[in-house]
Amino acid sequence: MAAAAAAAAVGGPQPPQAEMPAPGLALDKAATAAHLKAALSRPDNRAGAEELQALLERVLSAERPLAAAADGEEAAAAGGGGGPGAAEEEALEWCKCLLAGGGGYDEFCAAVRAYDPAALCGLVWTANFVAYRCRTCGISPCMSLCAECFHQGDHTGHDFNMFRSQAGGACDCGDSNVMRESGFCKRHQIKSSSNIPCVPKDLLMMSEFVLPRFIFCLIQYLREGYNEPAADVPSEKDLNKVLQLLEPQISFLEDLTKMGGAMRSVLTQVLTNQQSYKDLTSGLGENAYARKSHEKYLIALKSSGLTYPEDKLVYGIQEPSAGTSTLAVQGFAGATGTLGQLDSSDEEDQDGSQGLGKRKRVKLSSNTKDQSIMDVLKHKSFLEELLFWTIKYEFPQKMVTFLLNMLPDQEYKVAFTKTFVQHYAFIMKTLKKSHESDTMSNRIVHISVQLFSNEELARQVTEECQLLDIMVTVLLYMMESCLIKSELQDEENSLHVVVNCGEALLKNNTYWPLVSDFINILSHQSVAKRFLEDHGLLVTWMNFVSFFQGMNLNKRELNEHVEFESQTYYAAFAAELEACAQPMWGLLSHCKVRETQEYTRNVVRYCLEALQDWFDAINFVDEPAPNQVTFHLPLHRYYAMFLSKAVKCQELDLDSVLPDQEMLMKLMIHPLQIQASLAEIHSNMWVRNGLQIKGQAMTYVQSHFCNSMIDPDIYLLQVCASRLDPDYFISSVFERFKVVDLLTMASQHQNTVLDAEHERSMLEGALTFLVILLSLRLHLGMSDDEILRAEMVAQLCMNDRTHSSLIHHIPENPNPKSGIIPGSYSFESVLSAVADFKAPVFEPGGSMQQGMYTPKAEVWDHEFDPVMVILRTVYRRDVQSAMDRYTAFLKQSGKFPGNPWPPYKKRTPLHPSYKGLMRLLHCKTLHIVLFTLLYKILMDHQNLSEHVLCMVLYLIELGLENSAEEESDEEASVGGPERCHDSWFPGNNLVSNMRHFINYVRVRVPETAPEVKRDSPASTSSDSLGSLQSSRRPKVLQRENSGTAQVFSLVAERRKKFQEIINRNSSEANQVVRPKTSNKWSAPGSAPQLTTAILEIKESILSLLIKLHHKLSGKQNSYYPPWLDDIEILIQPDIPKYSHGDGITAVERILLKAALQSRMNKRIIEEICRKVTPPVPPKKITAAEKKTLDKEERRQKARERQQKLLAEFASRQKSFMETAMDVDSPESDIPMEITTAEPQVSEAVYDCVICGQSGPSSEDRPTGLVVLLQASSVLGQCRDNIEPKKLPITEEEQIYPWDTCAAVHDVRLSLLQRYFKDSSCLLAVSIGWEGGVYVQTCGHTLHIDCHKSYMESLRNDQVLQGFSVDKGEFTCPLCRQFANSVLPCYPGSNVENNLWQRPSNKSIQDLIKEVEELQGRPGAFPSETNLSKEMESVMKDIKNTTQKKYRDYSKTPGSPDNDFLFMYSVARTNLELELIHRGGNLCSGGASTAGKRSCLNQLFHVLALHMRLYSIDSEYNPWRKLTQLLEEMNSQLGNEEQQPEVPILYHDVTSLLLIQILMMPQPLRKDHFTCIVKVLFTLLYTQGLVALSVKCNEDDRSAWKHTGALKKNTCDAEKSYEVLLSFVIRELSKGKLYHEEGTQECATISPIAWSPESTEKYLQDFCLHFLRITSLLQHHLFGEDLPSCQEEEEFSVLSSCLGLLPTFYQTEHPFISASCLDWPVPAFDIISQWCFEINSFTERHAEQGKALLIQESRWKLPHLLQLPENYNTIFQYYHRKTCSVCTKVPKDPAVCLVCGTFVCLKGLCCKQQSYCECVLHSQNCGAGTGIFLLINASVIIIIRGHRFCLWGSVYLDAHGEEDRDLRRGKPLYICKERYKVLEQQWISHTFDHINKRWGPHYNGL
Fold first, then answer.
1. Where are the alpha helices (DSSP H) in 60-122?
2. Whole-model pTM?
3. Which residues, 6+ apart, have CB-to-CB distance to 1210 below 8 Å?
4. CA-CA distances (angstroms) from residue 451 to 423, 448, 520?
5. Residues 1235, 1406 contacting (CB under 8 angstroms)
6. Other C-beta atoms within 10 Å of 665: how many?
7. Burial of 657 per CB tally in 10 Å (0-12, 13-18, 19+)
8. What is the pLDDT of residues 1299-1346, one digit of tens each?
9. Gyration radius (Cα) of the chain, Å
10. Contact yes or no for 868/855 (Cβ under 8 A)
């Protein structure tokens, strides 16, 4: 019955049961719901159930709203009959009512929440959310916590950081699978399930009925809304339309999940119930709509390339074509990785056709086992179909959040994970097609990371759903879609396929979600073990890895530069790292113990098989193809890393996992090719391939890649070297590096494969490579801690590093679960062992240092390892930097003064498995090379460098260190050296070969070589051997048949790879013959013929070394065996003296070691030294040689000259900088004097810094000071309160600006303007507290005409400057300080002549008259001179510096009084600011440089000149009121109608002072100045007395009145404050000033007991400010020094300095301020005249009258807001704070550090007339200067006018580093020094000078 009514109410057709008409059409939903609930609660509830079903049919039918529109396209938009969405809202309302069962929905929610057993937090967030990760508490590396849980848990001392979520995530608090329980927050610590009552059955009963229907309805909408996108049109917008319509439904579901555990379990039941799904969705019912919906679903499945299992196909035997045919029909040939067809017409070819044609895509067909994984989907529950549509719609955020919100329900979690795995292949296909793959990737990972981080779950899914199979197969399929034929080695016949790095799939990293899931599950031991045990999986995986083997092949361009530099290498390196290396590290982390040997054997086995297949596929025999290189050999690296692990951790026998020799020889070729190519790239041989090839070489060794790339490569080469024939290996190296032809004794040779200019660097490369190969121990026996230490030392030696850059540069294991995590315990302990922390310092240039780590001295002494540094440097300059720092250390510690060579470092012992590596050092081939190179260096052949020598010596030393056991001396001496005259060297041991003398060598030389042109073998004097000079001329024999010569050619024969190297023919000993095929590069006939010559050598390695010593030291017989003097040396050989030094030291060290190793060597060394080398005859030098020598010498001299000049220049610059550039701290330095300080000079002389001439400033050619004018509100920020303002960090703390100086002055001016005459008000106070103009100079002067031409040249200069020339900005031509105007210097002397300074004996009355007369003279407008024009223009500049609102205070716009007020206020602003720069008082006297560099004198002239144009009417001139008794006192009251003038007692005395002085003709006389000061002091003092009288209460007043009256008639009455005070009180009592006081007033005034001392102190403080300003003014106008004094005597010192104190005044008895008074007219008369004005005003306005009398004169210095200690406090409050304008959370919130206002940086919401909020605020708060803290970046940004700069951060982490943009998210703490520097720059207005990087902001901040 009720159902019928309800249906009628909704407006659907009548249900069949209800025959009778429905009476209550409007019967409300609640009643219906209540009725239904009751019906369902009965034991027999079938009827109720049916009723409910019927109702739901009507309410929730998806049919009606969408059928309303005719065509399907528009259906989604049309919504219900009434506007779009009306029906849906109605339906939602119904659902809410039904769920609540008739009650209120909100109460229902609360009721359900009460049953929430919330043991998990599970809060889901989306991208950009701020979350925390604690590594100490996390079990999984992906663990994350929401801010609330983090702050409520205890993580003190843990390794945590804050981060911005990239893909979204969920809070893991309470989940013990992912984090340790100790880290849970207070809410989730208690396992609360026990004490939560059971959910009453009827509460959620309705939900169980309603929700299935609701979810089905949602699914129907999704089916209906989805239209297959046409092949060419992306369909995002249609999908988004549907999603927008469904927003309320999905939100409703999301809200349900938030009701807690009880509701979640109902939802889980609904979502996973297979029966209800089947009933509702089978589409078999009579309902046509449902059928249609089901068909749409099937179509969607098919079009996705998925088959529905009922299509009569059985899983296993489905032929590949079946999958294909459905696709072909749909026209979706390229949508997915379907099998057996060539995808060439694919929408994935977005990068145009360049990928096709040349590189046809290759398709592999896979086994059918994968078919089911890829192509079959069967949905059995709502959850499965919901996920299907979520994927189809490309993971809408709302759906993702809903699905994740359900995860705290354990049952759901398992079901959902299985569903997710089931859809995995489908996800991959959708991802590949998606146009928004980035967003989609993030959403996928957002889900998968929640599922796969949990080991238990991952294991379960692996076992039950074949997770690993699915993942590997899906990855394989994904990559198969972008394979191309490999061109490595054999382009035509290669069968190998590699991924094409230019494809979108790789370029955009589309694969990363899948790879990251794979890495995630491999981090679980149980899953990884399954993987390592499953042979089939390993084979598939190796197959996958081989797609990357040899990708991104580089071919060397030999002719012209490549026209298009491809950037595919980024994709290639990223792919190898992410898809190959990271899974590899994941697997390795589970092979740590002996028990896991089997896994390693499996991997190694399948890896070798894959490698063998690869060699076959590319047709590799034994020679790599020339001029190509690929940096990507992941198979080699897998093999190498598993080998290393096997030996290091699993105690496997290395030989048992090594292949045969032939395979080893193949294995070494490609890694060696890479090493040689690195040398070629650094030798600029690949320059025609563009910059990208350098980029690859750098990326290969860069810290994130090196331990997955270069390290395994080097290790693999070390393994090969230790097992292959050493001679073969060494010769391969030199052949690969193309320097075989260079290794000849002849002075000239031909290199067929290498240009001469590259020979030297390639030779250096080959030797350096050998040194690295032989001395690197990373995988050969070093422990993890030793490796970490070596890496750290290498990085620190290159440069001092911050903690974060160390972490960044030290290669960590790319897989996060693998142990060494930067920041872990071992990292910190090693760091503190090797480095010292340098706290952040401030350099006086404003460049702020960060906390740095620098190597300890003993590290330089013992651990500096150049080999490691070379291996780890990305830029060659870093090696140089390390050597420079090493040199500096040795100089500083006094260990070695000169230029040292890289030190030789002892190595950690080799692991026994790799002992064979040392055979390289003891093979004849290497010894021949070393011998040859030593000989060539000694003979000065071309193309050899010190570096070569250094490496040669290093190798010799390595050989000596690693020689076999000591040879028995007897055996060696039997035959003596003659025994084996027929071979180069007798044996393989370096120790014995060193002393072996080689007599003759046969060489092949070009016919042009000097060796050939000898006339007679005997004539030793012939000089044609210029290039072979040596201490001993080799005799060259032309006899071919000489039986003694040895021929040497280092060309290993590759074909018979192990032919015994025993060819003992006397003519060709030790020569391995190879057909000379390598000549194909040189054109036939171009090369001169080679002939054979025989050189007489007669040297051994030892003798060469000793001669080298002579050569290096430049002295004959410089080497003397040290053991002859000190036999001790042989016993303890490690002598510190040899450990650091240059080549000479190295040679001595080697000889010592050789002597130690064998007695024979010792003897031979002594012998060689005994044969005194005959003196060399002077060389005859041919003309050509002379020419080259002269050239060299000239060059050298030029170089020295240049160095000298540069040094001189630098020192001059430095001394200049010291004198000129003291912009930072105005206290510390003495700048250039502007003025010449001797008072005798009649005229000041100025130097022009542009034309360099000096002379006086004249009317027609004026000189000016370079000045910067800037508007400033710093003064306005002074407060009278000592308590500092804090930055608000809670809603309660807000900052109110009315206690600032600016606010107080504003109020005062507007009060005066309300009651008094406007023009008079504008003379009574100063403005400029906000937006005042501050003028500062660097002290340099220039001619104004020079300046104009300088500006012209700047205008024409196209270089981008940091300033705007059009606004008049420039930099001082001398010191480059920023400036924007020139202030003309007034002609005449700078320090006024003595004439003006002499004290005159006139009485004060005379002086007063003179002042009045001078002021009365109108200022004649000066004649039109250049000077006056300039003065006018600078005045204009000053006005334009500040905004109009800070200039116009007059009620009548444009009145001259305004200008008048503005001008004297400029003077006031500059004086007040200078006082602040001096610290607010003048105790330090004249020491401050602010004065020396001040431009006040010039500024005064300019202002005075302009002020004189406005003469004040003499009756209004306050001077008269101050100095004359006016008779007509009452006349003022007569004219009531006009406003009165401001009473003189309300005037600001300092303003009066400036007005008086600027009104006088310049230059001013000193006695006039003193006179004005004396008169004004009387007024000031009276004001003090009046203010005092108002401040004290009635009793005090009557007491004062009484005591003063008694003394009135004493002689000094006018100088006694008591008398004066009592008089003031008496006079003011006549008016109403004191009457108003009720009781409440007394309470507010401070209850001080006024003693004589406190009164005196009050009066002194009241007057002190005026005295300071006046003294400063006197100092600038008359050049008098300021005396320094103690703080307590400042008053007396300043008053005597100003001439207020009579000179005979004695300071013994306590000082009384009144004694400074000097009344121009009788005191009592003038005071009563002043008080009369006040009384007549207070008659009407007593309140205001009193307020105006109390002036605050003691302002404290201005400060920025005080910041909290910890940055997190600021961040947590502000980063979520909403903007007051648009109430959204701003993207870039910022806060003003001056006033605490919260602003949006760049926020468009707050833009006003094209000004963004920060710029606007900087104008309103700081008159154009703004200091903002950017909340999300922790940095401070300064806005100055139209420019801005990033200032840096005042918050540093525990290691003293900034964390810009909070990337590292470590806790940050305030750095007080930095904040002080910031404040100092703000107060001293030096932002422009100190910060260098300014840019325009175009009002967009």
1. 63-67, 72-78, 86-100, 105-113
2. 0.81
3. none
4. 14, 5, 10
5. no
6. 20
7. buried
8. 888 888 988 888 888 888 888 888 888 888 999 999 999 889 999 999
9. 46
10. no
